[in-house]
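INTERNAL AUDIT FORM
Audit reference: QA-55
Scope: verify that the stored structure record matches its stored sequence.
Auditor: D.O.
Record contents follow.
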Amino acid sequence: MYKQSLMNILKQMFYCLIIQMLGWHSVSANEPHQKGHLIVSADWLMTQQKSSNPHLKVIDVRTEREFLKGHIVNAINIPAEKSFEGSRIISFNNMRELLSASGLRNEDTIVIYDDGYIKNAAHVFWALETYGHKNVRILDGGIAYWEKNGGELTDKVTKFPVSKYTPSISAHHLATKLSTRIAIDNPNVLIIDSRNKSEYLGEFSKANRAGHIPNAVNKHAADNLNYSSGIPEIKTISELADMYGNINKSNKVLTYCNRGKDSAMSYVILRNLGYDVSVYDGGWLEWGNDSQLPIAK
């Protein structure tokens, strides 16, 4: 019995060593990898819930009204708009207060979901990573896919004890107007415009000027999704690799859109594919309204 226990311990140590060497960051050995370690399936989340993982927290980023109509059991409601202040990311202090009031802890594994179109979930995901949270995931297909796969919904609101969340700054996930301006002339940085093609070409703009940031390439965030019976799902790793395969992984990638949701979605997809990526927080609403900055059409 002693030898058997020793062998089991050695096996576990070997497994952990392999994980560290390969750079895996999965929450569980059973986590599906067909869509990458940052994207989880309804089946995976159901399994985690059944295991009563004390560090698992689920965040519903839809509006409070949608949340109260029905949500995943034990989910916390943090509407996506709370991750903004105007058109910018929530401030450090307000993020600390928001997460503490929600009962979240630094050691939690957080799974975020929205209506399935990923943009709202992605912005909260990016905000959490920008403020240093280590274990964040997105539920593929959101609540629509959860229901389709037999996931349970409730209108009961779960309250967790107030915590003392301690955010930190991961500045490499956030780009500024200055760093974006510098990136234009840097051959080692690729700028991705996540808006639709019409906005990229300058046919339409939500800012005073139309066009795009010079040298930016257009990859619309919505193109990261497939639709099954009308339900949006993130494309497979192989499909996404085809979309972004011409981007050198040794390059830094910077994404932007108008306000931040589309670019955050691109951020999640690219992070999931292994790219070093950041989001230009000001986006086109800042760039397009500043007459001192260059534009292209």
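Auditor finding: record pair retrieved intact. The chain has two domains: 29-154, 171-287.
Action required: none
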